Amino acid sequence: MTTRADSGRTAETAALVRAVSQWIDDSPDNRVRDAEALLWGRVAKVSEEAGEVVAALIGATGQNPRKGVSATMGDVERELLDVAMTALCAVAHLHADDDTPADVMGLLQAHVVAVAERAGLT
Predict the structure, then answer these.
(1) 42-75 pLDDT tens trace
(2) Contact yes or no for 24/32 (Cβ under 8 A)
(3) Beta-carbon contacts of residue 74 (< 8 Å; ≥ 6 apart)
(4) Which of 28, 99, 118, 121 is 20 to 30 A away from residue 111, measured at CA?
């Protein structure tokens, strides 16, 4: 059950995601890029962050004999959250020109529900 406090945190989180996304768009280098280049950069960044998850997992499990154990599962978790944040910022970027700001957390929740339904969990 979602409480009013949960809803407030969700709305605050969505607003922060949109703010970070806007901050990225407003950076000096990005202000001079065209819309398609910005979109490609946002989507490509998701893949770059996913690569960092793999690197952290390799480090946490000691799969690189030269480096040994060089990361923790906490590092893996933080990198996974970076992937999620990067993806949510890319979704916010898709809606940056909309008249009403995107509810990125609502979009995420609807997607989670749809995936759970496809999996037969609801």
Answers:
(1) 999 999 999 999 999 999 999 999 999 999 999 9
(2) no
(3) none
(4) 99
